[in-house]
C-alpha cells in the first residue's frame, strides 16, 4: 500500500543523476579523477540506504542511523571535493545557494519530524533536501 513516506523513495533516485553524468563522461572517453569514483561509491551507498529506510521508515532504527551517517559523510565529502576544485566565483555563489537550500530543508525536516514523524511537512521538506543534495552532487561533478 502506498504511503506518504514512499515519495522519498522516489526522490532518493535523484542521486542517480550524478552517477549517470559520470557514466556519460566515461562513455565519451573523458578522464575521471579518482576521487570522483569515491564520490560515486558513497552516492551508491546513499541510494541503497535511503531506499531501504524510506520504504519502511522506523525512527532511530539501525538503517536510519546508517542512512544518516552516510548522508552526512557524503555531504562533507562532496563539499570538500567541490571547494578543492573551484574555478569561478559563480561556482561559489551557486553552491552556496544549494547549500542554503540543503540547510533550510534539513532544519525543517528535523523540526517537523520532531512534531510528527512522517507528517506531510516532514516528507515535503525532506524531499526538498534530496533535491538540493542531488543538485549539489551533480553541480560538483560537472
UniProtKB/TrEMBL annotation:
Keywords for this protein? Membrane, Transmembrane, Transmembrane helix
What transmembrane ranges does the database entry give?
A: 6-24, 36-57, 63-83, 90-108
UniProt KW Transmembrane helix keyword: yes
What name has this protein been given in UniProt? Uncharacterized protein
Annotated source species:
viral metagenome
Traced from the root, the source organism's taxonomic lineage reads: unclassified sequences, metagenomes, organismal metagenomes
Amino acid at each position: 500500500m502506498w504511503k506518504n513516506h514512499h515519495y522519498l523513495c522516489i526522490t532518493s533516485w535523484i542521486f542517480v543523476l550524478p552517477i549517470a553524468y559520470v557514466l556519460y563522461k566515461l562513455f565519451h572517453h573523458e578522464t575521471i579523477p579518482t576521487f570522483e569514483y569515491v564520490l560515486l561509491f558513497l552516492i551508491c551507498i546513499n541510494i541503497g540506504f535511503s531506499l531501504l529506510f524510506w520504504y519502511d521508515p522506523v525512527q532511530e532504527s539501525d538503517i536510519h542511523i546508517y542512512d544518516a551517517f552516510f548522508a552526512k559523510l557524503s555531504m562533507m565529502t562532496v563539499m570538500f571535493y567541490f571547494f578543492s576544485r573551484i574555478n569561478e566565483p559563480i561556482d561559489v555563489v551557486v553552491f552556496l545557494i544549494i547549500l542554503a537550500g540543503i540547510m533550510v530543508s534539513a532544519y525543517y525536516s528535523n523540526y517537523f519530524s520532531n512534531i510528527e514523524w512522517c507528517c506531510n511537512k516532514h516528507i515535503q521538506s525532506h524531499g526538498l533536501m534530496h533535491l538540493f543534495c542531488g543538485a549539489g552532487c551533480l553541480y560538483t561533478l560537472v
